[in-house]
Design a protein that fits this description.
single chain, 207 residues, alpha/beta, Rossmann fold, six-stranded mixed beta sheet, 6 strands, globular, glycolysis, isomerase, phosphoglycerate mutase activity, His_Pase_superF_clade-1, 2,3-bisphosphoglycerate-dependent phosphoglycerate mutase
């Protein structure tokens, strides 16, 4: 069994997830459900017998709080945690803060769907998933992957789209495939890597 362990966790439900708002780089906190999801993720990882050596998270509160709650549930308070905006959520630009239904009423169902689900069409003033990959992947290669390959069990607590950028590479998904890959809030994905950084095992951990 490889000791090159990488775990990705999307933050728990945020206040704006609950309100069906485009969030992006805006910084709402977790809901009570989001806190419970983060703690459950920690309990699932503890049940796997994992103990992390290092954690990474974004510059946004909801991911940082999720990271802290996961580690706290595992008895790993105080673990070295690196925060970087390279792991921030996709920037939704002019859509940020808007209700998704209101956005559809303003721009039309088809246009909003394209902004949300296409790989390379950004919303006005924002990032496409392709842009997010271009921002997130170098940080993964330069900062996260070396930790994993050294045998440091590594946690990344971030966002749906910044994590999709990593999943796309780890699972070798096409641009079409990654847009269909759903990442539930507070649901850890466990990867074990070979020495050449390819994935030899991956599991979605669910309660």
């Amino acid at each position: 069994m490889s000791d090159r362990v990488l775990v990705l966790v999307r933050h728990g439900q945020s206040e704006w997830n609950l309100k069906n708002l485009f969030t992006g780089w805006r910084d709402p906190g977790l809901t009570e459900q989001g806190v419970a999801e983060a703690k459950r993720a920690g309990a699932l990882l503890k049940a796997e017998g994992l103990a992390f050596d290092v954690a990474f998270t974004s510059a946004l509160t909801r991911a940082q709080n999720t990271c802290q709650l996961v580690l706290g549930e595992m008895g790993l308070d105080g673990l070295k945690t690196i925060r970087d905006q390279a792991l921030n959520e996709r920037d939704y630009g002019d859509l940020s803060g808007l209700n998704k239904d209101d956005a559809r009423a303003k721009w039309g169902e088809e246009q909003v769907h394209q902004w949300r689900r296409s790989y390379d069409v950004p919303p006005p003033g924002g990032e496409s998933l392709r842009d997010t990959v271009a921002r997130t992947l170098p940080f993964y290669i330069q900062e996260i992957l070396p930790c994993v390959l050294r045998g440091e069990k590594t946690l990344v607590a971030a966002h749906g789209n910044s994590l999709r950028a990593l999943v796309m590479v780890l699972e070798r998904l096409s641009p079409e495939g990654i847009m269909k890959r759903e990442l539930a809030t507070g649901a850890p994905i466990l990867y074990r890597l070979a020495a050449d950084s390819t994935v030899i095992e991956h599991r979605d951990l669910i309660a």
